[in-house]
Amino acid sequence: xxxxxxxxxxxxxxxxxxxxxxxxxxxxxxxxxxxxxxxxxxxxxxxxxxxxxxxxxxxxxxxxxxxxxxxxxxxxxxxxxxxxxxxxxxxxxxxxxxxxxxxxxxxxxxxxxxxxxxxxxxxxxxxxxxxxxxxxxxxxxxxxxxxxxxxxxxxxxxxxxxxxxxxxxxxxxxxxxxxxxxxxxxxxxxxxxxxxxxxxxxxxxxxxxxxxxxxxxxxxxxxxxxxxxxxxxxxxxxxxxxxxxxxxxxxxxxxxxxxxxxxxxxxxxxxxxxxxxxxxxxxxxxxxxxxxxxxxxxxxxxxx
Length: 304
Description:
Order of helices and strands: HEEEEEEHHEEHEEEEHHH
Low-confidence stretches: none
Number of helices: 7
Helix content: 25-40%
Radius of gyration: 19 Å
Mean pLDDT: 97
Number of strands: 12
Structural class: alpha+beta
Largest sheet: 6 strands, antiparallel
Shape: globular
């Protein structure tokens, strides 16, 4: 089980997690500035691959390029449609050094990019080019995180398949450093209050312009130091937080406004896929039922 659903104790890789979070922000911001704006910031995300995380194709004039984290051979691979390929080793190095190496590589490949260097969704953030504080990289920890993402991505896609209404891809948000999938009722939502650190309020308002039930996975943070799955509704309907959910380890965290299921509870379950799907389905049903979604029009049985 440890090979399939690896252990992810936050304390064991907190420094690597913080550094990798910032590295993914640099890569993600490259995609952000080069891509046409897509609803709910879906143009900025990364995607899980058999070796790590990728931007997918990024436009640059008449060219395209991609940036991929490889957590098997521990390298960042930059490729262009003109045939250029460059590799940056993933090793202990500061955020400032990583930023400089990537910008230099992109320029050498003929796809130079300028990004806003202040990290998003992080309090007390340091501009990338000035950040010599975050410089940890534990290859084994990064590999374990990616192997967890492989399993989560796979199960999330099974859950996504049962919905025919508007739904996001399963994608990795580098701002909050989480893998997420979001279902929409189709109805407008009240304006989001904003207040996310180092993120314009209009971005949050656009992201939550319509009612959602959103589920995801994050590896932990200083504020919540454990890997966990989450599920929330925006706006939160009356009765949502008191709903009965599955499995037994799931709980509502009032301070976060979300249902939480510890990652450890899933990986230690005799049937991890079923436990995770039960959490996602039961918390979605709590949102959809209490907000009176038109479930008959939005859901389907998965075809076989």
